[in-house]
Specification:
By secondary structure, the protein is an alpha/beta fold. It is built from 20 helices and 14 strands. It has 3 domains: 122 residues, ATPase, nucleotide binding domain (Nucleotidyltransferase, domain 5, 2-Layer Sandwich), CATH 3.30.420; 196 residues, 2-Layer Sandwich (Nucleotidyltransferase, domain 5), CATH 3.30.420.150; 133 residues, Hypothetical protein af1432 (Orthogonal Bundle), CATH 1.10.3210.
Length: 520
């Protein structure tokens, strides 16, 4: 069932609400929005937000583990989010985690506890996927523009750079520099001087140089700064007259503003003159921004310099709104994951007819299994279909052990629309679709045995790589494994298929699962 179908069956008096949770490196945020139907489509109207300054990135020790304080701060915040979302269904909530939980070695332990507190799955998204979602959110909040749009989002642990047009991102990069990590490295305890600021700028410029040439070549007509750091810089510059025009009306800056090169330089001089962020007095400087401001400012100045930005408009909407619009887009059949799979099939010259055969049979088999209460059958069907379409992408590298190459590509490539969990599950299916099963049985996190069974059986029956009439085949899960029921007469005329099924039974028995072949 799609998200919009879910709401169409709801009581008309109930608001159509969806929620996104953004576990960022600096702040944890949640937004609840109402889906509003218009003659031209659907819009999202935020109705409730929560934000906690967690500074998760500051809790990473030298071994890249979250310390106990950061662990506790994060779970406490998520517990509050979970209480607010208690009456929401899984169809209404999407939660994502970003850079700090990408790099923390104990991230899996944190995520496991956080999912219990939140009551919903949490996706750890890759850097470029974060960039894409940032652009989706920013583009819905930005002023109209016909040409290319540059969006920069300075987060706590990473900074995303995106060029797109309309609502579609075309060029995306994520760099491991953020306002929390950069402030910790160059402005320990909030102490600032001209030398440390210069070093912070140079370090950020060195990172941004990697993408600067390609981005400048692509070009843009509009530069947008999104989310917390950009908004904070715009407010401080405007409300303290650092751009030469003092704005006394704070309502002017609530939803939008402008950052200029002059304003950034003037703000930098104010920080250096203060020598310490603790003693700095500026209108609109919030306590939770005080210690992370210099790092964010240094990164923004570096971006202006390397990308030769003259001025930048500000929008508050970013990742959390991008998650919601992407979430809604999936329900309207604009799921970016389908586009990504199609692009991968083209890139790796997949045999389209063979992939269709395998997908058709695999989904027929999975449909025969009863749907557990905790399963998202729609998503699992899609994932199984993607595995069928992509199972041979490793052939582009080598026929020998191609399934390992397929699994590696799906696990490590940039796949827009896919969360890390999506990619890990896809990779496991591709790794296990042929060959020995022992490589998966040792992985306690692998839970898609029915999907893998369906995929492997489909491959056995499609081995000839030609269209042929296959009689009805029934499958079911037994207490000890699986059972396949098919025509004895047909199987006797397909000795290779019979041999392959017997081999399958042996392979499954080696991992402690019974594979019964029932002939009728």
């Amino acid at each position: 069932m799609s998200l919009l179908q879910h709401f169409s069956q709801a009581n008309e008096s109930d608001p159509k609400l969806i929620a996104s949770v953004d576990l960022g490196s600096n702040s944890f945020r949640m937004v609840i929005a109402q889906i509003v139907e218009t003659p031209s489509g659907f819009q999202l109207r935020p109705v409730d937000t929560l934000r906690d300054s967690i500074k998760l990135a500051a809790g990473l020790d030298r071994h890249k583990n979250l310390d106990t304080q950061a662990f506790a701060r994060g779970l406490s915040s998520i517990r509050r989010f979970g209480e607010r979302l208690r009456n929401f269904s899984p169809m209404q909530v999407r939660a994502v985690a970003t850079n700090t939980l990408r790099v923390a070695k104990n991230a899996s332990a944190f995520i496991a506890q956080a999912e219990i507190e939140l009551g919903f799955p949490i996706e750890v998204i890759a850097g470029r996927e974060e960039a894409r979602l940032v652009y989706v959110g920013a583009s819905h909040g930005a002023p109209a523009n016909q040409g290319n749009r540059l969006v920069i989002d300075i987060g706590g642990g990473s900074t995303e750079f995106i060029i797109g047009k309309g609502y579609e991102a075309n060029l995306m990069e994520s760099l491991y520099i953020g306002c929390v990590s950069h402030s910790q490295k160059f402005f320990a305890n909030g102490t600032i001087d001209s030398y440390s600021f210069k070093q912070a700028e140079l370090a950020a410029r060195q990172e941004i140089q990697i993408l600067a040439k390609e981005f400048r070549k692509k070009g843009w007509d509009q530069a947008i700064g999104s989310s917390g750091t950009a908004k904070a810089l715009a407010e401080l510059i405007a409300l303290n007259g650092l751009d030469g025009q003092l704005k006394k009306d704070t309502l002017w800056i609530e939803s939008t503003g402008i950052i200029t090169r002059e304003g950034l330089e003037n703000l930098k001089e104010v920080l250096i003159d203060a020598e310490s962020m603790q003693s700095l007095e500026l209108t609109a400087l919030k306590s939770d921004r005080r210690l992370v401001l210099p790092g964010g400012l240094a990164i923004m100045i570096a971006a202006f310099d390397e990308l030769r930005i003259e001025s930048m408009e500000i929008v508050e909407a970013a990742l959390r709104m991008g998650v919601l619009y992407d979430f809604l887009g999936r329900s309207q059949h604009h799921d970016m994951r389908f586009v990504t799979v199609e692009q991968f099939m083209k890139r790796y010259s997949v045999d389209l007819e063979q992939s269709k055969r395998v997908e058709h049979l695999a989904t027929i088999f999975l449909e025969q299994f009863p749907e557990p209460k905790d399963e998202d059958r729609t998503n699992n069907m899609a994932l199984l279909g993607w595995a069928a379409r992509l199972h041979e992408i490793g052939l582009s590298i080598s026929h020998n052990g191609y399934h390992k190459h397929s699994a590696y590509i799906s696990a490590h490539a940039d796949m827009p629309g896919f969360s890390k969990n999506d990619q890990n599950r896809l990779s496991a299916l591709l790794l296990g679709h042929t060959g020995k099963l022992g490589k998966l049985s040792v992985n306690s996190n692998f839970i898609d045995w029915r999907m893998l069974f369906s995929l492997r059986l489909a491959l056995v029956l499609s081995r000839k790589r030609v269209e042929e009439d296959i009689p009805t085949i029934l499958v079911q899960q037994t207490p000890k494994g699986f059972k396949v029921s098919l025509s004895k007469e047909w199987l006797e005329n397909h000795t290779l298929t019979e041999y392959s099924l017997r081999k399958e039974a042996e392979d499954w028995s080696k991992v402690g699962k019974e594979y019964e072949i029932d002939l009728y």
